[in-house]
Write a structure and sequence with these properties.
Elements: E1 13-19, E2 27-28, E3 31-40, E4 44-49, E5 62-64, E6 71-73, E7 77-82, H1 83-86, E8 96-99, H2 101-108, E9 119-126, E10 132-138, E11 141-148, E12 154-159, E13 169-171, E14 189-191, E15 194-196, H3 206-211, H4 218-235, H5 238-245, E16 250-253, H6 260-271, E17 283-284
Parallel strand pairs: 13-16, 16-17
Antiparallel strand pairs: 1-3, 1-8, 2-3, 3-4, 3-12, 4-7, 5-6, 9-10, 10-11, 11-12, 14-15
Helix pairs in contact: 4-6
């Protein structure tokens, strides 16, 4: 079995790579959420990476379901590697957070005061018709590793049956959850033969900013320019583009007119040739 080498071994630490959300990075409710997650056992590390975040993990790991002839796709890429090699899989510049397993497990389930962190069982279980997760039974509690494409492609580690939920996305700054949707997000792109540092107005070329001083043209110029700027950013950034096209919730972005991000998503869908009968999966709040 794939996980035999981990059984009866203690979970020493949990490392979150590019954690989400931003207020308390990596923790949402009782869940741990990150673009990638490393579970460090005694000698072996379990590395989980999101196909929405990293080009090298564009397809999820498929595992044979014990006792059947079927295969289970986890959605995310799962790799077992020696602990010393795990850190080499990610650039040092990425934001990291280390979680102490035993303390987090107790805080996630206050009634489980005797929770231990020794792995007793690891097996795949089906969450829905298409989604599978890895259920890990520790001494005192059961936890699931699940891919959440709806939550910005995060890997979620949470007590069994207690996934994090949201009903809408509200973006007020470039920091925090979904901050890459904000016009001020620092990701340079080229538009009209010029390099823009971001899509926020202060980074627009001076002639465009001057036009905004006209009350008559302000609203039209602002919307058209913001649409072109955001479209250029996502068109030139494959990783951000695939995250945009995966959105599933009503979305409200500070500084972005209602419906505009939907227009951008529709344009990008056409560019990647998803087919004439498929509509964008992103929704805009009213």
């Amino acid at each position: 079995m794939l996980f035999e080498q981990l059984l009866i071994h203690p979970l020493q630490k949990i490392e979150l790579i590019d954690p989400w959300p931003g207020d308390t990075p990596g923790v949402a409710g009782v869940s741990l959420l990150a673009g990638a997650m490393i579970l460090h056992f005694d000698q072996t590390a379990m590395v989980c990476t999101s196909p929405l975040r990293y080009m090298r993990s564009q397809s999820g790991t498929t595992i044979a379901v014990p006792g059947t002839e079927s295969m289970a796709s986890l959605g995310y890429r799962l790799t077992l590697t020696p602990r010393d090699d795990a850190d080499l899989m990610f650039p040092s510049c990425l934001h990291r957070r280390v979680i102490a397993p035993k303390e987090w497990m107790v805080s996630a389930d206050p009634n489980a005061a005797s929770v231990g962190h020794v792995l007793l069982l690891a097996e795949v279980e089906q969450k829905s018709q298409a989604a599978w997760s890895l259920r890990m039974q520790f001494l005192g509690g059961s936890y699931c590793l699940t891919w959440r494409p709806d939550l910005d492609g995060c890997i979620e580690f949470a007590p069994a049956g207690r996934q994090h939920t949201i009903d809408r996305i509200v973006v007020t700054s470039q920091d925090g959850a979904f901050g890459w949707l904000h016009p001020a997000y620092p990701h340079p792109f080229v538009l009209d033969e010029s390099c823009w540092r971001s899509a926020q107005v202060s980074d627009w070329p001076w002639p465009l900013r001057k036009v905004l001083q006209s009350q008559h043209a302000r609203e039209t110029v602002y919307r058209d320019t913001m649409c072109r700027a955001l479209a250029a950013r996502f068109r030139q950034a494959p990783l951000l583009r695939q995250r945009l096209l995966a959105l599933r919730y009503p979305t409200q972005i500070e500084g972005v007119p209602d419906g505009l991000i939907l227009d951008v998503a529709a344009e990008l869908h056409a560019i990647v040739n998803l087919g004439p009968n498929q509509s964008p999966s992103i929704w805009t709040a009213t």
